[in-house]
User: What shape does this take?
Amino acid sequence: MEGTLLRSKLRHALKLAVAAALAATAISGTTTTDAAASRPSSGTTCVIVLAKIKPGENFSREISRKCSDDMADLREAREARVPLVFIHAEADYKGHSEHYYGEEPCDAAGYGWREFTWSIDNAVSSLQVFNGCRWSQMYAEVNYGGDVKYGVDNYPFVGHEMNDRMSSLIVHA
Ligand SMILES: [Ca+2]
Assistant: This one.
């Protein structure tokens, strides 16, 4: 009698374990699929216009953001603005790209990204700088934290130590 009860309990425990394992698989499967689906396609470029860092702040506010597969759609957003930094999800300035423009070229205070948007966070593989934004500080964590790489000029590849890890960035003259 006790043996039967024990077997019954064991079967029940096994069923629960299998159910839990299936649920875990389903959850991780969904998460992976969603993350892959929500990444912009490799041909997509975003043009983002930034304000200068204000006194008392440590990051640049976004004034506008427009994304498209067709660069002609982005012409208006680029006009009358100064290119600052282009970051790309693949090496050699390829893949999904975020093109940051500003109201003015870089000065000593420069521009700061305290937290990359989800579409490029932990994905940057190459970086181009313009208009005096020569010096860069690339951080592995948000809010200018974690490992840092001090850069100068362009990077067709940001290096194995920072590849697909960057979450915040400062550029300045
Ligand atoms: Ca990448």
About this structure: The first helix runs from residue 2 to 38. The longest strand covers residues 82-90. Residues 89-90, 123, 125, 164 surround calcium ion (CB under 6 Å). Residues 22-37 have pLDDT under 50 and may be disordered.
